[in-house]
Write a structure and sequence with these properties.
2 domains, 6-stranded mixed beta sheet, Alpha-Beta Plaits, elongated, 10 helices, alpha/beta, Aminopeptidase, single chain, 4-stranded antiparallel beta sheet, 16 strands
């Protein structure tokens, strides 16, 4: 594009339209779980894009976790062919949001506009980003009707619960693979001057220690599973956590604390449930712990699991009566795109042009839908870039800055133009 300033003027002129689009998306209470309002939100996006010349398809992820007649997993994918052959640039945004939680000072789904900020659950993560991507694509089309290739926009579901009803399902069916798609931008909220090229890996697992039930007044006749779990936690503190803190990655993960290996104890459940507030007078015969291990690209998944298993096996040998079961829940390998690849390079160049400063390349401490595009779709040219302050995601009074939405729309439009014309 010889004159990107003309494109920027088109986007600036649509400031109010961008705000109202983001507000409309926030007003759909697409809470996951259980998966509220997915279909009307998807259809709202589809109607808009259909009116602007996109071919729209709705794909229900039948049989995926949570899918039901009451809560269908409906995804929307829109495609617009250009004036000639060329690559496809795809903007993928998830429409689901987490529970609202307590602590809000505004209605989470009223889309309150105040002091240059748009408040609401999903404003930051990531309906502000999806709105900016839609405006970016529409402005690009209106500014250059001779663009080659194709533009795609998708609104997908269940990212907050692993993406199985959304990008995972679509990737398994070829929606995120070449030759259909060449470049993907996911407008996740990682700050408007950052290009996110990947994320750490994750292993969720449940560990159960077993004991023997007895009367609580005579614990010597039983074997307390909670005490066995305590012994395991003690080994984690003594033998594993110091090792994790000593490991550091070359991945540009933000914040800096996440450049180390980490493990969170998500929950511990042990013993019989209380009845009407009174404890059960029993020695616990079972205790369950869920762990969330985040791993670096330099680590090996099997070795990560082996470290935990080795501590458990050590306790089997050393602690009388210790018995356990280890169950995998979920795992994703770390991923990192090439910062010199077409989509990362073009987005970084667009940030410099729009914002007048160099982009920062980062990786996310947690995972997002890039994992499915990379691992299942085998499409490596995928990044996350969008408006929103990372620290505000999932918080009460979540918001997105209006100026950030405008800036990111310009960046995404300019990056897509470069990719479509082969000048990235």
């Amino acid at each position: 594009m010889r004159n990107p300033e003309g494109l920027f003027k088109v986007i600036d002129a649509r400031r109010d339209e961008l705000i109202e689009l983001a507000r409309a998306l926030i007003r759909f209470p697409t809470i996951n779980p259980p998966g509220e309002a997915y279909q009307p939100c998807a259809e709202f996006i589809g109607r808009r894009l259909s009116e602007r010349g996109f071919t729209v398809e709705y794909v229900r992820a039948s049989g995926t976790p949570g899918d039901s007649e009451r809560y269908p997993r409906i995804n929307v994918i829109a495609r617009r062919e250009g004036a000639g052959p060329g690559p496809c640039v795809h903007f993928n945004g998830h429409i689901d949001v987490v529970q609202t939680g307590a602590g809000w000072t505004v209605d989470p789904f009223a889309a309150v506009l105040k002091d240059g900020r748009l408040y609401g659950r999903g404003a930051c993560d990531m309906k502000g980003g999806l709105a900016a991507a839609i405006i970016a694509a529409e402005a690009l089309i209106d500014s250059d009707d001779a663009l080659p290739g194709a533009l795609e926009i998708s609104g997908t579901v269940d990212e907050e619960s692993g993406g199985y009803g959304g990008v995972h399902y679509l990737a398994e069916r070829g929606w995120f693979s070449q030759p259909r798609v060449d470049h993907v931008i996911i407008p996740e909220p990682l700050n408007v001057d950052r290009v996110c090229i990947g994320h750490r890996g994750v292993w969720w697992a449940e560990i159960e220690t077993r004991g023997r039930m007895a009367h609580g007044s005579m614990p010597f006749l039983g074997d307390c599973a909670v005490r066995h779990m305590h012994a395991f936690v003690d080994r984690l503190e003594r033998d594993l956590y110091p090792k994790l803190a000593a490991r550091r990655t070359d991945m540009p993960v933000v914040p800096s604390g996440a450049r180390h290996s980490t493990m969170n104890i998500n929950s511990i459940h042990g013993g019989q449930a209380e009845t009407r507030g009174y404890p059960a007078p029993c020695v616990p015969d079972s205790c369950r712990m869920v762990i969330d291990r985040r791993l670096l690209i330099e680590e090996n998944m099997e070795a990560v699991k082996g470290e935990v298993r080795a501590l458990l096996d050590q306790l089997v040998r050393e602690r009388e009566g210790f018995d356990y079961e280890l169950r995998d829940i979920f795992e994703v390998q770390p991923t990192m795109a090439d910062r010199n690849g077409p989509v990362a390079r073009s987005t970084a160049a667009a940030i410099r042009r729009v914002m007048g400063r160099p982009a920062e390349f980062v990786c996310s401490p947690g995972t997002y839908d890039q994992k499915h595009i990379d691992r299942i779709g085998k499409l490596r040219d995928c990044i996350a870039y969008g408006p929103g302050i990372l620290d505000l995601a999932h918080q009460p009074d979540e918001y997105v800055l209006i100026e950030d939405m405008l800036t990111s729309a310009k960046v995404m439009a300019l990056a897509a133009e470069s990719l479509l014309n082969g000048t990235a």
